[in-house]
Amino acid sequence: MATVSCPDCGALVEVPPGIRPGDLVECVTCAGHALRVHETAGRWSATVAHRVSCPRCEAMVTLPEDVKAGDTIRCCGRTSRLTFAYGAFAAEEA
């Protein structure tokens, strides 16, 4: 089975059968870290898929790869603006 290295902790994470580039896998070591897998020339790699909790309902929202501070997300019918500090995103009600 193929594996990827977690870019945060270095743990090896199995790539399940049937997974496609862009799909998410969970790091077995990092609590709550999702990894977005990529395949290039038959080799798998991973990047951290940033997540934020909705400031209203606490649901976890996985952010797109190209996200940046100041972007907005929608959850619970409300819009939240993203901030970035200390290596992590947060959502604040707009």
The amount of helix comes to: under 10%
In round numbers, the mean pLDDT is 92
Q: Please provide the count of β strands.
A: 10
| Classification by helices and strands | mainly beta
Q: If you compute it from the alpha carbons, what radius of gyration comes out, rounded to the nearest whole angstrom?
A: 15 Å
Percentage beta strand: over 45%
Terminal CA distance reads 44 Å
Biggest sheet character: 3 strands, antiparallel
Task: List the domain count as a whole number.
Answer: 2
| Lateral strand order in the biggest sheet | 3-4-5
The coarse overall form would be elongated
Helix-strand pattern: EEEEEEEEEE
Quick description:
The protein is 0% helix and 50% strand. With 94 residues, the chain is mostly beta strands. It starts with a strand and ends with a strand.
Can you describe this structure?
This protein has strands at 3-5, 12-14, 24-26, 34-40, 43-49, 51-53, 60-62, 72-75, 78-85, 88-93. The protein has 94 residues and is an all-beta fold. The chain folds into two domains: 3-49; 51-93.
Descriptive labels:
2 domains; mainly beta; three-stranded antiparallel β-sheet; 0% helix; 94 residues
Describe the protein's topology.
Elements: E1 3-5, E2 12-14, E3 24-26, E4 34-40, E5 43-49, E6 51-53, E7 60-62, E8 72-75, E9 78-85, E10 88-93
